[in-house]
Structures are given as C-alpha cells and as structure tokens.
Amino acid sequence: MTPVMRAEAFDLVFGLPLHVLVNHAVVVLVPLGALAMILMVFVPRLRKSFAYVSAGITLLGAVAATLAAQSGEALAERVGNPGVHEEWGDSLIPVAWALFAVSVLWVVLTRLKTGVARVWKIVVAVPVVGLSIASIVLVILAGHSGAEATWANRVATDTSSVTPSPTPSVTASPEVVPTPSEPTVDQNVLSLELVAQRNTPESCWSVVDGTVYDLTAWIAQHPGGSGRIIGMCGRDATADYNRQHSGEGGPASSLAEYRLGELGQPVP
After folding, report:
1. Cβ–Cβ under 8 Å, residues 106 and 125
2. I need a labelling partner for 27 at 20 to 30 A (CA). Which of 36, 64, 148, 155 fits?
C-alpha cells in the first residue's frame, strides 16, 4: 500500500478524523488490559474466569495503538506534525504488542501444572507487570502531549484576550472625567508595546527570549499547524516556544530566519 493510499485509508470517518476516534479506544483499552493483567498476576482467584479475557483486551489495545499511529500520520498531513505527541504514540506500539505477547505466554503457563511451568510463570509475571505499567505511563504521556499540542496555545490566547468588565459605580451627580490619553508607542524602536500592535495573522510579531521576530510568513509554513504561531502573535511567547522546542536545533534555525532584532533596538 502506497503512503497516499495508506493516508486515505486512515484519514476520515463520517467527516471526522479517524485519529480522534481511535484515540478514545487507546485511552480505554490499553490501560484496561494492563490493569487487568496486573490483577491476574496478583489475584489468583480471578484467573480462571478472566485470564483469557484480560489477554484479549491487551490485543485490542495493541491494535488500537497501531491504528492511532497510522491515522495520526494521516491527520498530520492536514494539520501539521504534532511533535513529541507522535513520538510517545510511536513508543506505545511496541510496548503494547509486547504486553500482549507476554500476557498470552503467561496465561498459557498458568494452565500448565508442571514444576517448570510454575517457575516460568513467576519469571514471565515480571515483564507482564513491568510492561503493563509502562503502557499506562505511555498512554498518559501521549494523551497529555496531544492535548497540549492541540489546546495549550489556544487556551493561553483565549485567556489573554479576555478583559474583565468594569464594575459600574454609583455617583451622586454626573461628572465629566477626562479620559487619559494612551501613551504613544515609538514606532522606531522594538518594544513589547510595538509587538502588541502586530497581533494578527496579517502582521504577526512575537518575542522569544528578548528577541523580536516577524512570524507572518511562517504561519502557513509551520509544520505543527498555523494555530500555534497565531497564538504567539503580539506577545512574549518565550514560555510557549521553550515548552515545545527547548534545546532543539531545527526550530531554532527556522526561527532565526525571521529575526528583527533585540528589544530596545531600532526597527529594521
């Protein structure tokens, strides 16, 4: 199957991204199978009724994790690369399949009554528990990074754009209160005030670590989607940038192409 055909196969379902739908299965099935296998190891009385079912759930979780990765690649073609979220999702796949494999082996060993089988059952129980814990941790990391990639900048932007309504005051008699004039922003010097005026996709300036960048042209080219860059417009976005790309050479090189200068320097 070619990459194009694979992307189309895992792209949309009923007009919605398949990745979003499959992620719900991953979040439920992988931890459920992992917790079930931990119970099988430590609660012997449950094994007779639920051992095979628990191993079966780990299989469904591994399949769901694989489908999530494939559909995630298709979604990335539409909205851009999700960065660390993709890395955690890819790491989950081999762990989920390994958990399924050792779970099946362990369940088979519990059905054997020989002395050697009993010894190996104890030995295999260790990776069953270890992989169960690892799969749960990876689901949490992948889910958190995915939510952060989708909502962090949008929530920050929405929060910063909300201004509290003034509390009405009751006065004995109407008075003419002079409106203070807004301070004039020097258009010739790079400053936070000047950056705040460039807060639209059509003119998007931002500050990262004390340096001003004109990111207008970068909005449409950003691999992680335009929304993240738009969320940086008109403000100091140092925390946002460092949270996503701290220590990464590639993003730093791309950002440097749009440098205007340091705060306090003349506008180029």
Report:
1. yes
2. 155
